[in-house]
Amino acid sequence: xxxxxxxxxxxxxxxxxxxxxxxxxxxxxxxxxxxxxxxxxxxxxxxxxxxxxxxxxxxxxxxxxxxxxxxxxxxxxxxxxxxxxxxxxxxxxxxxxxxxxxxxxxxxxxxxxxxxxxxxxxxxxxxxxxxxxxxxxxxxxxxxxxxxxxxxxxxxxxxxxxxxxxxxxxxxxxxxxxxxxxxxxxxx
Length: 188
Known about the structure:
Oligomer: single chain
């Protein structure tokens, strides 16, 4: 009776090993796929975040420009934004009522942030473009705020766009463009 029982178990190890091999292969493939997707997602999040920082840098550079060159800002002529901007189009800003403003600049992050080596190369892949326009009041006109002392302060809006490509390659068709705006008061 003992020999009969052993004869029924012959060949049982091979199907069991094959089943375990298939299960472990599926688990390994699933883990590799999940890891790959997580890596891709983290890379995309990093690129989006860096593009946002590029747009913020544009606002900071424009504010510094306004402080250093007050007379140039108040005396500058308006320009057609849609014609002169490369990737920071007026259509990205719903609060912008007309497509005129004062063009100020376009830079890559490595021109603003001092870095060396690989970090400088990485920063060179992100750029920003910015311009300034008069902030409209509730009626849509250029606004100025009259202080009690009798001086007029002009409200400007700084518009900035970050792009995940260098300033030479970035265009309106780039895959990541982050628009930001900030309202500032220029005290006369």
